[in-house]
User: Which sequence fits this backbone?
């Protein structure tokens, strides 16, 4: 049972373009939605996160859009750069109990120069 | 270095052997998590500790797996009688609980290959 579904599996964008990655969740008890960035040979690193009381959060070139009624959230990377080439994971957790993260399967982003 | 440290970075073993991994969390972090990541997948939760207490274990964690966190500092994950299906990246993460929605900081992982 996959609680967080992520798409697309891979994405190729030209430098300067917008990268968009989508996630959908099933468990309405989730109340924290982070995005992680992972480079080869490294562990995931927190990029940006949102809670369901807001519909959008922006940090630099990275924006999360959140649609609570549709149970969907997305990551937008503006002005994509070759250095953004990495695998991106969406995740979700509940603030009760262990707060363990449930991850999507990841999106491999390639930004061509 | 103030990040999460994992050792070894790579481990190759033969099926049936036992292996042990170590994780040193960020020093002031009281929560420590173990995740497993296979190729092309997101990390999957295995278990977590708050201080020295192991509070939750995933159904993924078979009886061959055991984790400890003595004194609430570093943690070890042992896999007994390894199987080829255990081949994966084992990730450790730590956090400091200071309200809802803690931030997890991951180490670079231990890549296990079971031949």
Assistant:
């Amino acid at each position: 049972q996959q609680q967080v579904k992520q798409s697309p599996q891979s994405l190729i964008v030209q430098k300067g373009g917008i990268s968009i990655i989508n996630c959908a969740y099933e468990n309405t008890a989730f109340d924290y939605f982070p995005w992680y960035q992972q480079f080869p040979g490294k562990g995931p690193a927190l990029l940006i996160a949102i809670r369901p009381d807001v519909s959008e959060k922006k940090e630099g070139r990275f924006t999360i859009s959140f649609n609570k009624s549709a149970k969907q959230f997305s990551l937008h990377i503006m002005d994509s750069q070759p250095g953004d080439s990495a695998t991106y994971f969406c995740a979700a957790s509940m603030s009760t109990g262990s707060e363990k993260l449930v991850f999507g399967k990841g999106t491999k982003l390639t930004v061509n120069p | 270095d103030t990040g999460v440290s994992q050792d070894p970075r790579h481990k190759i073993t033969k099926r049936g052997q036992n292996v042990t991994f170590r994780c040193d969390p960020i020093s002031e972090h009281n929560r420590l998590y173990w995740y497993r990541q296979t190729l092309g997948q997101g990390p999957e939760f295995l278990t977590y500790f708050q201080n020295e207490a192991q509070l939750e274990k995933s159904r993924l964690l078979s009886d061959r797996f055991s984790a400890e966190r003595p004194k609430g500092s570093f943690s070890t994950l042992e896999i007994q009688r390894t199987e080829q299906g255990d081949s994966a990246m084992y990730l450790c993460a730590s956090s400091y609980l200071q309200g809802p929605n803690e931030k997890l900081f991951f180490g670079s992982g231990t890549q296990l290959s079971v031949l």
Observations:
- The radius of gyration of chain B is 13 Å.
- Chain B touches chain A at residues 4, 33, 40-45, 48, 55-56, 91, 93, 100-109 (CB under 8 Å).
- Chain B has no helices and eleven strands.
- Chain B has a mean pLDDT of 92.
